[in-house]
TrEMBL record:
DNA-binding region ranges: 32-51
Transmembrane residue ranges: none
Annotated protein name in UniProt: Toluene efflux pump ttgABC operon repressor
Source organism: Nocardia otitidiscaviarum
GO molecular function, one term: transcription cis-regulatory region binding
Keyword annotations of the record: DNA-binding, Transcription, Transcription regulation
Gene designation: ttgR_2
Keyword ATP-binding in annotation: no
Pfam families on file: TetR_C_31, TetR_N
Sequence ranges assigned to domain HTH tetR-type in this UniProt record: 9-69
Amino acid sequence: MATAIEQGRQTRARLMAAAVELIVERGWGAVTTRMVADRAGVRPGLVHYHFPSVTDLLIESALDVARTEFDAVMARLTEVDGPEGMRRVLATVGSYSATDPSMVALSEMMLAATRHQRLRDELGRFVAQARAGLTDWFRAQPGDADPEATAAAVLALLDGLILHRLIDPTLAAVDVTGPLLRAAGLTDDEGKSHVRQHDSAPDD
């Protein structure tokens, strides 16, 4: 028999799952306490027992999706070093589509962040953590003199790539592996190293 604590965790998880489904189906601003309760199969009062407001529920639920997606990307990246790691990231990014529920939820979250200060702050902390994780990976790669700057640039490029592919699915046919690897200071061919030309002056 589940304990009260376990039941509470299960109810909280059901509420968060229901919130994400409704964000995707109805849009962030249309989700209400009763809608979430009905979808989760619980009394409306339980929503406010676990979360101060429906907005807090939406924020926690969307951030959980963001963390889950990023953790999956980092898991693929950290399995290997060098160019292959970045290729795996691109393969994961390439699997996203405009109808992917997690991507729709994240898009709604980004828009909502312009209206909710708490969400904006929480999202800022998440991005900083994501950047730190990527920085650690680049720091372990040979030849990167500024892993923090590289991580910031690559993360921004990946975010932009995801957004553009969601808007224009035909971009999925464009192979951006080489440009991304060069931006990351890695190689785009076996045995070929893309060293920044200004790092060493030519011999006279």
